[in-house]
Amino acid sequence: MPPAPLSRSGKSRRTTDSPISYFIQKALETPGLISFAAGLVDEGSLPVEEVGAAVAGIVADPLTGRAALQYGSTQGLPELREQVLQLVCDADGVRPSDVNLTADDVCITTGSQQLLYLLGEVLFDPGDIVITEAPSYFVFHSLLQSHGAKVLTVPLDEHGMRMDALESLLERLRRSGDLARVKVIYTVDYFQNPTGLTLAVDRRAKLVELARQYSTNHRIIVLEDAAYRELRFTGADLPSVKRFDPKNEFVVYTSTFSKPCSPGLKTGYALMPPDVMAPLLHLKGSHDFGSGNLSQHVASRLIASGAYAKHAEHLRNVYRKKRDLMVQALETEFRDFPAARWTVPAGGFYVWLTFDGIDTGPDGPLVPAALEAGVLYVPGQFGHVFDDTDSVPNNECRLCFGVATEDQIPEGIRRLRKACAAISAGKREKVKASV
Ligand SMILES: Cc1ncc(COP(=O)(O)O)c(C=O)c1O
């Protein structure tokens, strides 16, 4: 007799496999395929020697070796929390005291992903509302689904999340009495995953102002996901949204060593108000009572030795070159294809390609045509959610130039153009057959 069925939690039943697992699997299974799908970092520039030297330095002295190989604390290595605080404040051109922050307001996490998840555990009950950009980071959407949160979206333009639209949405929610359920406004404000777009400075200030204005019953938290901030390769850095929260009340800022250093370290960090930190640490205590201690010691050494800053500088050159190769290839291949347009990111590793009249969705014709041509992208549809107001666009693609090699980038775009041509030819055939 088969065993009785498993009785799963509501959360487990709400949690499904990531929609892009299929695409990652396809990339692994198909030899010769050029993948612009997975958001992985450049392989060749991973800091093997730097991390090797840091680990060797740590274990060279039994005292530091033992400290790194022992459990750490739930909140994270104090030196690293100090360094992270300084890193963010230097980038923002302020002293920690100017923005009411100390190392006690910093938590080291197992990647920034853990922070996104734990903050949800702190704040969301099923049915609570989270406002995100449309499109947004699809793994965050999956996580919201697990928490049972309801997602409402705000459109982007070339300057990031539209504040007029956010204000209208908040006003609408106030009038309908649903403001009480709004917990978080989420933005990936530097070189957004998936569009590559960046939030303009005036909108950063406005975002905090709106959160404050509509926090009538309870505080609406702005969750600033700055995962790609340090990978800017054009123009000057912009102040964080957190910079506009001088009392440390409204904004949780999260970032990571995954992108500007190594995802293998799986070490992220967050700056947050004290009354968010306390419950978050209780949950993190139950979850892992501290992120990987050795990784934290490595990150701390890399920062202290200057290797981290040097490496991030090197990466900016690596990704600038790759961005240029992708944009040049798009210009070359899609010059005579007016139905295509794309973003030119100033950092990070995503280009957002939009077609008029081509269905890029997972069930549309471009996915199989692209696979046939030997290239893979992420259907833009995955970055959208079906909320109350909108249907989901199905004419967009996320192209990641992070992991593809310099040789593969132009070739992959050539293959994508070929796939578009195959679809257009197919359409013409259909029209001919029907007349
Ligand atoms: C926007 C964004 N946030 C957070 C993460 C999580 O990264 P990690 O957990 O490695 O820090 C990613 C990873 O791709 C991302 O794209």
Automatic annotation (TrEMBL):
Domain Aminotransferase class I/classII large: 45-416
GO molecular function: pyridoxal phosphate binding; transaminase activity
Alphabetical list of SUPFAM superfamilies matching this protein: PLP-dependent transferases
Domain of life: Bacteria
Annotated GO biological process: alpha-amino acid metabolic process
InterPro entries in UniProt: Aminotransferase_I/II_large, Class-I_PLP-dep_aminotransf, PyrdxlP-dep_Trfase, PyrdxlP-dep_Trfase_major, PyrdxlP-dep_Trfase_small
Keywords: Aminotransferase, Pyridoxal phosphate, Transferase
Keyword Nucleus: no
Cofactor: pyridoxal 5'-phosphate
Sequence similarity: Belongs to the class-I pyridoxal-phosphate-dependent aminotransferase family.
Subunit comment: Homodimer.
Protein name according to UniProt: Aminotransferase class I/classII large domain-containing protein
Species of the source: Gemmata massiliana
Lineage: Bacteria, Pseudomonadati, Planctomycetota, Planctomycetia, Gemmatales
